Amino acid sequence: MIGSIRNMLTFEGLAYAIYDYPDMLEDMVETCCLLVEDFLDQVLGEIEFDYASAWEDICFKSGPIVSLPFFQDVVTPRLKRIGDKLHDTGIDVWYTDCDGDVRPLLPSFLEAGINCLFPYEVNSCAHPAELLAEYGKELLIMGGIDKIELGKGRDAIKTYLESVAPLVERGGYIPFCDHRCPPNVAVEDYLYYLDLKEEMFGMK
Description:
- By secondary structure, this protein is α/β, with parallel strands linked by helices.
- It starts with a helix and ends with a helix.
- The model has no long low-confidence stretch (mean pLDDT 95).
- It folds into two domains: 116 residues, no CATH class; 71 residues.
- Strand 2 and strand 3 form a beta hairpin.
- Helix 1 crosses helix 2.
- The chain is globular and about 55 Å long.
- The strands form two sheets. A five-stranded parallel sheet has the order 1-4-5-6-7. A two-stranded antiparallel ribbon has the order 2-3.
- The protein is 54% helix and 13% strand.
């Protein structure tokens, strides 16, 4: 609803449009929503889906790139329309790709039906345990393995994996590197991380 519009208008253009051309921007969001709805009307019921995915890359380390009132008033109702269509056909997992600090948007995401975060970046947000403790089984997370810790060697890798082990045990959390693995992580340490994750979490 916003990520694609940001790509068209640019970050700066979107920032101005929210205040200078709010009606135009809402019309763009509505058009994006209609395109998704039209697509869903053609495939839902014809193809069996296990989950839904989305791309709404609109956060950075300081939070969303749009104001919360704009998101709540303009974007959330459209997302909810999409969520209602998904839920009506039995799709109960809907994740969105949103980097950065997503915490300010989480209530709106959950209200609309987006219940899973990906790739969940730790350094711009928080350890996944914090959010899962706050939202319980209502929230699912994929990612959340701190890429900075992966670069600190095997002791740090083991310590971090131990910190997420209870989350894996409770369910609703799939651990992997929070976005791309940086080049300072030694290949041998990355292979150690994969082997240890398999050993700890029983991935066969």
